[in-house]
Design goal:
By secondary structure, this protein is an alpha/beta fold. It has nine helices and eight strands. Helix 3 runs antiparallel to helix 4.
Length: 329
């Protein structure tokens, strides 16, 4: 598709407000004082969301360390017990399978509880790899005593090392829970649900749909119940209800998420200050969105664009009123 025909979600918002205002803004490409003030608020929010996302990432990283440290401690402990059995001749066969079962149950419980809290970082594929590696290491540790006759002191050293690694796992668990609580508190303050997967800034990746010639950067994307939900923040006054132009912008973000992720979001979020609205992304809204895209492309080709309303109040609040040839006030 011709680059000049690519339409951004912000273009859709301006077009929904007034086609002529959108056209004048498209031609001048300059920012107005109102837009600059709005961008400052957006940057401030984006910085806060990035901080929250960073804290969440720390929680996930420490959670992964709990798993890895526990695995190392278990392997060291099993190796020590196996060598102790070989050197002393004691019948400890029942201990090894029991410890293995306890370890697997503990790991599964930890991952399940973590997933229930929406904080799981070890995805299914990674868990499978680590579980297989852990199983192999434990089998080796359980039978290493039959291959070597080591000094009993080595067994004691291994048990001490296992204890150290378990202490490290406990510390990692504490740090993970602390970071999770801090992130949860900050998200509650911001009224955010789920996990922050994306924060829209000038340097953030641009969502793009070749099929629809559409691009955009949502202010944020949350993962809620396995669904990617785009969100848009609006500054300035809070209207009585979601404005049509803003609904079109959120719908554009939903379409971009569906195109890039292959999974259609059931709704998008529109936030005015402390008020939040769920914009259902149903087939009817998608059809309306695609119709507006076609309208805009038709106007881009013809170059003939006019005001579509007779509301002086709308013109008075328009950022392009000074250069508009059809303004009412």
């Amino acid at each position: 598709m011709d680059e000049t025909e690519v339409i951004s979600a912000s273009d859709l918002e301006r077009y929904g407000y007034c086609p002529l205002s959108w056209w004048l803004g498209r031609r001048s490409r300059s920012s107005t004082p109102d837009q600059e003030r709005g961008e400052l608020v957006h940057r401030s929010k984006a910085d806060e969301y990035r901080r929250i996302r960073g804290i969440e990432q720390k929680a996930w990283d420490w959670e992964r360390m709990v798993f890895l440290f526990s695995l190392v401690a278990t392997v060291l402990a099993l190796t020590g017990i196996s060598l102790m059995r070989a050197s002393s001749g004691a019948n400890l066969d029942w201990i090894l399978p029991l410890l293995s079962i306890i370890w697997f149950v503990a790991v599964i419980a930890m991952l399940y509880l973590s997933a229930q809290m929406g904080q799981a970082i070890i995805r299914v594929r990674r868990l499978q790899i680590l579980a297989i590696i852990g199983l192999v290491l434990m089998v080796v540790a359980m039978n290493i005593g039959g291959l070597f006759h080591a000094d009993p002191r080595i067994s004691m050293i291994l048990e001490v090392l296992a204890l150290v690694w378990m202490m490290a796992a406990s510390l990692a668990l504490y740090l993970s829970l602390s970071a999770s609580q801090e992130a949860g508190r900050k998200k509650d303050e911001e009224g955010l649900e789920g996990e922050i997967r994306y924060v829209g800034t000038d340097s953030s990746p641009l969502f793009f749909s070749e099929r629809y010639g559409l691009s955009g950067r949502p202010d944020f994307v949350l993962e809620i119940d396995g669904q990617l939900i785009p969100g848009d923040l609006k500054t300035g006054r809070t209207p009585r209800g979601p404005l049509f132009s803003h609904i079109m912008q959120v719908a554009a973000y939903c379409l971009l998420i569906a195109e890039t992720s292959g999974k259609r979001p059931p709704y998008g979020l529109l936030r005015y200050g402390d008020e939040e609205h769920e914009i259902e992304f149903d087939p009817e809204l998608e059809k309306l969105l695609l119709g507006k895209l076609e309208e805009m492309r038709g106007l881009m080709r013809s170059g003939e664009v006019h005001r579509n309303h007779n509301r002086p109040g709308k013109c008075a609040k328009c950022s392009r009123r000074d250069s508009c040839p059809e303004r009412l006030v």
